[in-house]
Every structure is written in C-alpha cells, then in structure tokens.
C-alpha cells in the first residue's frame, strides 16, 4: 500500500496516510479534525546520482558555493575531477577510502 502525503482543507494539517487501492482521498478523514475529503499533496522525491553524473556537473577550475558541500558526497569530488582531467586515473577504491576517512573526520569534528 502506498503512503500519500495529504492535507486537510479545513484545519490545514499535513499527514502521511497509508492508502489502500480502493480508498480515494474523499474517503480518508483528517486525524486532527475528522473532516472528510483530504487533498493529496505533491511530495518531494529523491533520486540517486552516480559519481559519474556528479563529476559531469563539477567545474574543476571554478569555485563552488557553500551549498555544494552540504551534500557530503561532494567532498573530494573536485579533486577527483582534477585528477581525471589531468590524465591521472587514481585507484577509485583507494581514493574513496581516503575521502571517506576525511568525511568521517569532518563529521566527528563538527559534532564536538
Ligand atoms: Zn483537519
């Protein structure tokens, strides 16, 4: 059964509801005020980007904004891009292990 994000048009409460195949939004009731006819909302979704995809979006010689590093998977990405652009093909496993240790270290430092 899928989970839908619903909104009550009366009290504006947002809830996630498990919806069986036979249920329509009109049959669901608001857990807060009991109003029927919940409205289905558009939910955010995510998708997986491979390292190759992310590398394609990185400009090695252009600084990136702070938002770039909010996704910790981007740590080390510019270095990897520069290595590849300069003809070096680092051992991906060794490189990833090193970057993963750096990510772990940064996380621990930020939690102090
Ligand atoms: Zn309601």
Report on this structure.
The model has no long low-confidence stretch (mean pLDDT 78). 31% of the residues lie in helices and 11% in strands. The protein is built from three helices and three strands, in the order βββααα. A three-stranded antiparallel sheet has the order 2-1-3, with no helix packed on it. The protein is an alpha+beta fold and 112 residues long. The protein has two domains: 38 residues, no CATH class; 61 residues, no CATH class. A hairpin with a 6-residue loop joins β1 and β2. Zinc ion (ZN) binds next to loops.
Task: Please describe the structure with a list of short key phrases separated by commas or semicolons.
single chain; alpha+beta; 3-stranded antiparallel β-sheet; 3 strands; binds zinc ion
């Amino acid at each position: 059964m899928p989970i839908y994000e619903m909104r009550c048009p009366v009290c504006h409460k947002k809830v996630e509801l498990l919806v069986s195949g036979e249920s329509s939004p009109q049959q669901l009731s608001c857990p807060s005020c009991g109003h029927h006819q919940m409205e289905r909302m558009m939910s955010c979704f995510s998708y997986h980007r491979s390292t190759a995809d992310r590398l394609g979006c990185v400009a090695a010689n252009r600084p990136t904004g702070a938002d770039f590093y909010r996704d910790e998977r981007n740590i080390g990405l510019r270095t990897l891009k520069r290595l590849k652009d300069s003809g070096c093909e680092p051992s991906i496993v060794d490189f990833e292990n090193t970057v993963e240790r750096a990510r772990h270290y940064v996380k621990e430092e930020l939690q102090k």
